Amino acid sequence: MTKPVARKKVLVTGGAGFLGSHLCEELLKEGHDVICVDNFYTGSRKNILSFQKHENFSLLEHDISSPIFLEGVAEIYNLASPASPIHYQADPIFTLKTNVCGSLNLLGLAKRLKAKIFQASTSEVYGDPEVHPQKESYWGHVNAIGIRSCYDEGKRCAETLFFDYWRQHQVPIKVARIFNTYGPRMHPNDGRVVSNFIVQALTNQPLTIYGDGMQTRSFCYVDDLIRAFLGFMKTQTSLIGPLNLGNPTEFTILELAEKVLQLTGSSSSLIFKNLPSDDPKQRKPDISAAQSFLHWQPTTTLEQGLEKTIEYFDQVLSSENILQQ
Ligand code: NAD
Ligand code: UDP
Asked: What is the fold of 9-320?
């Protein structure tokens, strides 16, 4: 028999976003009181609509760059940050403030409340990696002044803050480096590759390939990732990370486009566009640490995950006719 989980007050920043809303849903299923903090920069009220009736769920509209005052919180998941390149580059100073000032504010809260705090870091801390696959011990290859730097360096600075709060104040931290994750509740205009290709295929528009499409990514389905978040948070205090979380099966962007066309049955063509600067050429996580410490590994294949995501976008597009808005 599985042990019942003790009820706690859990704060999820970025809880109205893609990953955050799935996390809130799972925490509610475990019986916790969930406080979702979001400023709706990229998040959507629709993502949390079904939980708002839940008596254990509350929403606090707030920008984490400003201090936050709450009591009784036992666990914090810090997911608030624009995550798609087009969104984090739209207002780079906001992105940096969110990741640096936001992390400081939440670490201060965790310190005062003696709460455990999880940081949604990213594979972007490895930049355009010269080591493949990427292990947690790799220090990365990051441009400090490029168009991706607001996100990459913001997340790197946040990691530094987390580790300094751990060393200086013994705040219990859990730092996860998340690799490309996709699934239902991504916004149709999110701009990341999986949602772009699916929306383009379903609306018979050309699939936009940046560069020659030979760059690689490893795509993780959202349910697999959220399982790892919850597992990591339950580990002993000494396991602080950073821990790579993602699916290690690597695909080129062209292979992804072909899979989306095949699974949607779309006759969309491919259109080649300029590769944005500093776009990483290859990315694949080494997840051996997560496998051994969390006894976790992804179980959803790209095909299975894409099928569920296509079904989701199909419903969203037909119910809202979103492209005409
Ligand atoms: P998302 O854009 O769907 O969600 C981000 C959420 O944070 C949104 O609801 C947004 O409104 C909110 N937010 C942004 N800035 C805020 C602020 N200053 N104050 C309060 N709320 C704010 O993106 P996502 O894919 O769900 O990403 C969630 C987290 O995971 C991000 O921190 C991202 O960097 C990290 N991450 C995601 C991936 C991925 O592949 N999905 C990969 C690596 C890291
Ligand atoms: N990409 C693409 N077409 C798109 C969107 C993205 O070819 O419509 C490419 C992008 O250049 C990158 C990869 O797909 O090489 C993944 O991009 P995404 O924005 O999803 O995430 P990233 O891993 O770059 O943060």
From this structure: Rossmann fold (3.40.50)
| Active site (annotated) includes residue 77 | no
Q: pLDDT digit string (tens) for 270-307?
A: 999 999 999 999 999 999 999 999 999 999 999 999 99
Mutate to test the pocket of ligand 1, among 81, 222, 245 (most ligand atoms within 8 A of CB): 81
* Residue partners of 179: CB distance under 8 A and separation at least 6: 123, 217, 218, 220, 244, 245, 246, 247, 283, 284, 285
Locate the domains of the chain by residue range. 9-320
Going from the Cα of 15 to the center of ligand 1, the distance in angstroms, rounded, reads 8
Mutate to test the pocket of ligand 1, among 47, 61, 79 (most ligand atoms within 8 A of CB): 79
Q: What is the pLDDT of residues 201-257, one digit of tens each?
A: 999 999 999 999 999 999 999 999 999 999 999 999 999 999 999 999 999 999 999
Distance between CA atoms of 69 and 75, rounded to whole angstroms? 14
